Structure formats: C-alpha cells, structure tokens
Amino acid sequence: MPPTEHKGLLRWVDEVAGLVQPARAYWCDGSATERDRLYEELVSAGTFIPLSPATRPDSYLARSDPRDVARLEGRTFICCQREADAGPTNNWVPPDQMRTQLSALFAGSMRGRTMYVIPFAMGPAGSPLEIWGVELTDSPYVVVNMRIMTRMGTAVLDALGQEGEFVRCLHSVGAPLAGKDRSVPWPCDPGNVHIAHFPETREIWSYGSGYGGNALLGKKCLALRIASTMARDEGWLAEHMTVIKVTAPSGEVKYMAGAFPSACGKTNLAMLVPTLPGWKVETIGDDICWMRLGSDGRLYAVNPETGFFGVAPGTNETTNPNAVATVSHSTIFTNTALTPDGDVWWEGLTPEPPEGLIDWKGDGWSPERSDKAAHPNSRFTVPAAQCPSIAAEWMDPEGVPISAVLFGGRRSSTVPLVLEAFSWEHGVFLGTCLASETTAAADGAVGVLRRDPFAMLPFCGYNMADYWAHWLSMATTAGREHLPKMFLVNWFRQGAGGGYLWPGFGENSRVLAWVFARCGQAGHEGPGGDGQARQTPIGWVPAPGALPTDGLAVAAPQLEELLRVDLGEWRAEAALLRDYYNLFGDRLPAGLAGELAALEQRLAEVP
Ligand code: TSX
Ligand code: MN
Fold it and tell me: How many A from CA of 218 to the centre of ligand 2?
C-alpha cells in the first residue's frame, strides 16, 4: 500500500509506471534502515566501493560511466509555450513536442528495475519558502544522494497531505533490464540525454544520465530552474549563491550572499577561514539560496539544500580545511581516485599523489600518465550538518537577513579586487556583467571566457532579460532602503607577468571586512569612516589604505594594481556588454540600457 492518500500523487505515479514499466515501485521512507539496505545493494551491484572504515568511515566511492561525468547544458531544455519566454540563452523546445519525444524514450525505460518514489522538501521545514517535490527514479544512487541533499521521506508525504502541491520530477537512467540481467554498475544512455523543464506546469523530465545536476532533480532543476520561474511569479528570488555569516571582532554579525560561476571557489568562500584576527566566517549554504522580502523590507535567505555536492579536486587542508573535515566520514565520493588502502584521493589533495592509485575509471594510475587520477568534476556528497563551520541558524525557517550580495567571476584583467555598486540598479547591472572561464563542471571547451550573468546562465528557467527585470523590481516593491548593497569581486586578477596578484582564500576575509564596513554605513555616499571608498566611473573601490592589510604579503604597487580601474579595458568591456545586451532585443529592461549608457557616459567624461 502506498503511504499516502494524495490522489494527484497516486495518479501520477500510476501514469508514469504505465509508461516506464518498472518491475516494482518502492516508496522511500527516508529511514536509516532503508539507507543501509540501499547502500548494501549498491555495493552488491558494484556501483559503490566501500572505503576503509579506519580512514574514511561510513563512506563510499562510485565510478560513473566515463561518458556520464557532468551536467550537459546542450541537452538541457526549457519547454514553455512561447520561445521568447525561454529567451536567447536557453534551449527551447515546445512542451508538446518534448513530451512526445520524451514519452518515446521513457516508454519501457525502467523495465526490470525498481522505480523509487522519493518525496522530498527543499528549504527548511515550515519556511514560507519551502517547496515539495517527488522524484521518480530507477537509480538507487540518486536515492541515496537525494537523502543527503534534501529532506526526504515520509514526513514530506505527511506534510503534503491529500492535496499539497509538489513539483513532479521524473528521472530514468534509460537502461532497462530486458529479459536476462544486463546490470552494469553505472547504467545510462549517454546518446539520448534530455534534461527537460516545463516551468508552466512545474515538471522536470530527465532521461539518460545518472550524474549530479542531471539526476538529483531537487538541486539545479528544481531549486534553480523551476524555482526561479516560481520566484518570478510570486515575487521572490531563487539564486545560484552561497550564503555566509560574517562576524566582526566587535561581535557584530552580517550575512552575505555570493554568486560565483562554477569553479570560482564558491564552496571555498562558503567555508572560509579568515586570516584577519578576530573575524569569523560561518556557512549557511554553499550553492543555492532562496530569498524573500521580510516585512522590514530586508531580503531574507534560506539554503534550500541539506548537503553539499562539491567538486573534490583542489580541496585540501590549505584551500578549504572545513571541507576536508566535512568529508572525513559519511560521504559519497563520485569519480575520485582510490588509494591502495581504501581511501580516496584527488589532484590537489596532497602535493604528491600516493603510490598505487586506481584512477576514476578503475584502472591503475601512475604520475607519469598525462591524464588525471580523479576526474576534474569528481564530487563529494555530504550532509551540511557535518561541516565544522556550519552556522547554528542554517536551518532557520525565517532565513537570515542579507546585507551584501557579492558577484565574483574569474577575470585575469579589467575587474578590480572589489567594487561597490552606486545603487540597486547599478548593482543589478554589475550582476549582468559577470563573466568567467568555463570549467569541467559544464560540458564544452575549458578556459574560454563566457558571460555568466548572476552565475545563472545555465540555471535561469526563463528569459534572462525578464530575470534582470525581476531583480530590478525588488526595489520598486520594497523600496531600496533596506535592500542589500551589491559588490563585484575578483580573486583572479593577474599582473603583467601573468601571476595572480591576490593570495585569495583566507585572505579574502580582508575584502569581506571592507564590504562589512561599507554595509555599516547609512547611505551609499563615500568616502568617510570605516571602509573608506574612492569613486570611479565603474563604482566605489577601497580608498588607499582602506583595505585591512596588516600582515599581508602583498606589496603596495601590487595592491594598487589590484584596485586599478583601467578606462580602456572598461570601454572595451562596455562595448562587449552592449553586444551582449543586443541579444535580448526589446526584452532588455530600460533600467539596464540606462545603466550601460550612464557607464559609457562616465567613461567618456574622463580623458
Ligand atoms: O577558491 C578559490 N578562492 C576563493 C577562496 C575563498 N580559489 C580556487 C579556485 C578554484 C576552485 C582561488 N584561486 C582563489 C580564491 O580566492 N584565488 C586563486 C588564485 C590563486 C591560486 C594559488 C595561489 C594564489 C592565488 N597560491 C599562492 O598564493 C601560493
Ligand atoms: Mn553550483
């Protein structure tokens, strides 16, 4: 007997079962017993390799099919009625056409397999921003990852009652077991991957991939693409942002949200250990935040997730000691290397690889090999509660009030270390300027500069220009007085010689301290008081000496270079941005056209 009397849910599960023809349906209760049984099954199937209980207790390594290692943006679709509502940055297919296409792929796709019914909630229990979903999947790997990344199980069915609304999430790896057992450790159908979103009916259909954001549908698909559309309709914000709690030596606390494109070190910022004496950074979330206006006109943020699905390579005791501690036990690793004594390893964990490594594909590996032992997009899945820097209020249903929004791309030139916007509208403009190098987290070429406005390019479920208009509208709705201040940051500026000018990591606390001080000031006017600022054509930058540099091994000329605003570079940037804006035609909000024109004007006024 299914553990619910929700007729809509029961009907949908029946309908899907009729299409995908599973051997059985199983309703997940979220219990520890269920977890243990699934882990045993995953070990028997060869999907999970148990790691050594001595060095990595309660932890497992999964190796994916080598053809199924990352999100596939080219195979990700927004299926709304009108193409213009998806906008020029999304792949659009009419909903009826996609349904027909996908119905053919899903027909019989779960034959011989179990169809798991996963009731889950995104957002803290009882939060005004809580959203329920149900994922139907034939992947037990997905079930155990969803159990870490979301609140999953019977409590959600109870909360749904008989008519609660939920997002329908359908997922199949697309590898039916027809007749004889053709079971493989990582079934998938790489040639036919579709990640389809139907924002108007709040549905997700994902076929062919078992990896990360393609398959754990609560994360990028629901919490960003579907939620961003809901947020537009309902007047809130669903963002690809970390949220941190920053405590000054005085004990004063401010919360900051940060939008960073993939692999700019967002998780490292979320768990940063300040080098500045007396300062503390704690973690509310590392990847996604949902924000709504409180009755006091401030923006309140929650972390919709309960776990981290983080990139492993580059994580070590120096770059992110809190992440290293977090994954010391009860962690699922995917596509890392395996050591001979049953532990995991990845590039950057230690300066030298241990001897006798098995690579992410399961083959012996040696340092002479030109390829990597761990896949560059290898991951850990781990409960956020295990993080030593997790803030006590990380699950507060009301959320935390945001004082600053940081936008940070990876730019070797042009963008100074930190820059404060003149106004809300100018801040939204800076958000649209975000650009970064591509990385292994997305498919396609690596190392190419691409625009990634608000770090939402792959995650906005509707027309990006309408999304910008929605951000602008927050000031109209709430008044700008209590909205967060906005900043551009860039840890990656390079000098003439090509090296990084800024040491980054824990030293970024110096930038946070300046941001903190700027948020303490009444208006946007500067200079004056703590966090003194210098006005430039592109925004406020720290005045000479305003950035706390005690004990910092960065010479004065280097600091000056980090904060320099190069008018020539910005004139070129403005021209590029004008081209980019032209993509959006008459959907571009007038406020942003105005901001760009005003920037061009300010750049022209300076000789
Ligand atoms: O995460 C990074 N952050 C943010 C930390 C809170 N990374 C790693 C990016 C890949 C995910 C960085 N890399 C940062 C940074 O601030 N800065 C850099 C560039 C850099 C790399 C190595 C050094 C310095 C800067 N090494 C030394 O200074 C010795
Ligand atoms: Mn992300």
Answer: 13
In the chain, domain spans: 7-49+69-235, 238-307+391-586
Tokens for 563? 């904060």
Place of tokens 């924000």: 291
pLDDT tens for 482-507 read 999 999 999 999 999 889 999 999 99
Q: Dump pLDDT digits (tens) for 160-197.
A: 999 999 999 999 999 999 765 578 999 999 999 999 99
- Tokens for 304, please give them: 């919709």
Quote helix, strand, coil % in the chain, to nearest 5. 30, 20, 45
CB of 263 within 6 A of ligand 1: the answer is yes
Ligand nearest to the CA of 322: 1
CA distance 158 to 160: 5
Q: Is the CB of 489 under 6 A from ligand 1?
A: no
Q: Residues 403, 256: contact at Cβ < 8 Å? A: yes
Name which CATH class applies to 7-49+69-235: alpha beta
- Cβ(417) – ligand 1 distance below 6 Å: no
7-49+69-235 and 238-307+391-586 share one CATH topology?
A: no
> Could you report the per-residue pLDDT of 237-269, keeping only the tens digit for each?
999 999 999 999 999 999 999 999 987 999 999
Residue 203 has pLDDT above 50, yes or no: yes
Task: Match 């919490």 to its residue by tokens.
Answer: 223
Question: Using N-to-C axis directions, what is the helix angle for 464-478 and 424-433, rounded to 10°?
Answer: 160
Q: Mention the CATH class of domain 238-307+391-586.
A: alpha beta
DSSP class of 364: B
